[in-house]
Amino acid sequence: MTETKAPANAPRERRKVGRALLFVLLVAVVLLARPADRHLRAASLLLRFADEHAQGFLPDYGKYALDESVTEVASARGPVRARVYSPVGATNAPGVVIVHGVHRLAIDEPRLMRFARAIAASGIVVLTPEVAEIADYRIDPASIGTLGAAARSLRERLGGRPVGLMGMSFAGGLALRAASAEAFADDISFVVAIGAHHDMRRVLQFFKTNETTWPDGHKEALAAHPYGALVLLYSHVESLVSPADAPAARDAIRLFLWEEHEASKAKLAEMSAEGRAKVEILLEGKADVPALIDEITRHPEQAGAVSPAGHLGALRAPVFLLHGATDSVIPASETEWLAKDVPSPLLRAALVTPAVEHVELRGEPTVAQQWELVRFMAGVLDAANEN
Known about the structure:
The chain is an alpha/beta fold and 387 residues long. The protein has 2 domains: 10-199 and 307-386, Rossmann fold (3-Layer(aba) Sandwich), CATH 3.40.50.1820; 218-304, no CATH class.
């Protein structure tokens, strides 16, 4: 989950979502006789995510108590710290790997933990791996192998049963790359990409132009979130400053993202005057971002290495796509591109909704928007139980 600040009224907003979902649940019970159970379980999950302290018949519907433990996942680059959420008493439970977004707290980030618990309490074993590059604000192809290794580890834990793979933000695109890799195809039974990118080169252009490009060719103005640009520039700091300045520049930007501003200034002091000036204006929000993006895009192969674009034809797993309609970190147009590129027999759902802001529930959605979310999550729960 990308580290953007939650508004002060976030708990109240989540309660609004929760109250509205209660109404949808009642409608589901009345109007959807046979599928009521699956929709009730999905809505119960969403209620628990919106408010982890919610109680009563509806948030408790189909809910399991949880056992949580910290473990390690074996990968080609060594052990990876991970957390497992196991539903107590669930027999032959399916599994899903949930990958955090760009956030220094990684698997300890509260929203990720709340979401993992909501999923696991539905009767699904959840594993959350700590992906070093993503936790360090870097979108790196090395992470793809870590995601695949996590899926393989959970599959082995469940006796050979393939598992789902769910990625948030930039990790959503990497999850699709992992599922497209032949080495992990047998381990992954479905993919959920939330707020994901299709082509990092196009996302970079979005941060350069504040304009989104859609599959039908039309363009829309959208002010890019400055945080997203800073993260992408951090991932390519070697394109912005000299090799001698790169380590200190990377540390300075990282500490700034962590809001440790004095420590960031100390790192800036270690740089050359030219390099320090470049990074200072970047952190002050005064940099010529288009020019910096041009520096990055001189090496398009780097962006291509972390993009699902051109690789989705190798997919064998069903795909679910979810995106916030007003997302200014990764624009919703990217999910439209993904939906166009995923082989049509494998695309289970592609939902762009105002009810989601990047990877967080937002505001008080309409009844129709709430129902779309319930139906989307019901499909994900179905996919988890298919294998």
